[in-house]
Amino acid sequence: MSRRLRTLMAALCALPLAFAAAPSAHAADPTTMTQGFYVDPDSSARRWAAANPGDGRAAAINASIANTPMARWFGSWSGTIGTATGAYVGAADSRDKLPILVAYNIYHRDYCGGHSAGGAASPSAYANWIAQFAGGIAARPAVVILEPDSLGDYGCMTQAQIDEREAMLTGALAEFNRQAPNTWVYMDAGNPRWADAATMARRLHEAGLRQAHGFSLNVSNYITTAENTSYGNAVNNELAARYGYTKPFVVDTSRNGNGSNGQWCNPSGRRIGTPTQTGGGAEMLLWIKTPGESDGNCGVGTGSTAGQFLPEVAYKMIYGY
């Protein structure tokens, strides 16, 4: 049976559930519409390995990082966003693979931390951008991580700014539900050491979690899968107790092989974690941050910019030193 016929059959069989379930319950499961996860052919790790074949670190980086399915991040650098997401998801679809995308362009992005500051110029500009993002995906299967750090980054914000941010996220979810029915969207919920489970459950709910497929944890961080899984379950306990529902969650395992030493910005001695897969105590374990990409001008990445690929950091992360 062809993939497109499988997709149609899955959608038809699931229609009664779609009508009975919450607004975020889509007609099909994108993991069953595809044959495994998509390996980004243009990741920073793959580009570096291809450009430096004579470097002694290239073989290890290519084998252990560049060929692992991981997310591609989209923001202001991506050009016309609908074209960019459409091309990426289309390339994955042509290979019957499931792509992972990160939407990272919210207005006042990283407002308190500052290392990845930027984003859309206004809430309305963001609404237009995210609508085009979703439209580029359309009906093709995909996984989207929605705005990492956006719900943990409240420390320096006024209530009006918090309300504005939550409205942007709610609007984004509405666009995905309207335009991208075979996309699982995970709202980012930070990590276990940022906000307690009750606080994060409230923030998720107020930002529209009912409309999302689930939530994501540990994006660009180093905390163990076990600690994240315990936290995700605690968040769900709070959601159930307070609001009467729970959601699946995913964990970013790209850099948590050695756990955290308490530092989040380019700490030394970290290690790559479990490759992208379904299950593992969460709905999925995903590589969302590319190992070796800098967190900013800090730690072992001093002198770098956020997102810059640092081959020595990547190489050491493979072996955990």
What does this structure look like?
The chain has 321 residues and is of the alpha/beta class. It contains ten helices and eight strands. It has helices spanning 3-13, 15-20, 44-51, 58-66, 81-94, 123-137, 159-179, 197-206, 225-243, 311-319, and strands spanning 72-74, 100-103, 142-146, 183-188, 214-217, 249-252, 277-278, 284-286. It has an eight-stranded mixed β-sheet with strand order 1-2-3-4-5-6-8-7, with helices on one face. Helix 6 (123-137) runs parallel beside helix 7 (159-179) and helix 8 (197-206) packs across helix 9 (225-243). The longest helix is centred in the middle third of the chain and has 21 residues, at 159-179. The radius of gyration is 19 Å and the shape is globular. Residues 1-25 have low confidence and may be disordered.
Task: State the main characteristics.
alpha/beta, single chain, 8 strands, eight-stranded mixed sheet, disordered N terminus, about 325 residues
The mean pLDDT is 91
Biggest sheet strand order reads 1-2-3-4-5-6-8-7
Summarize the biggest pleated sheet: 8 strands, mixed
| Cα Rg | 19 Å
Q: Which word captures the global form?
A: globular
- Total helical elements: 10
The structure class reads: alpha/beta
Helix content: 25-40%
Q: Strand share of the residues?
A: 5-15%
pLDDT < 50 stretches: 1-25
Count the beta strands.
8
Order of helices and strands: HHHHEHEHEHEHEHEEEH
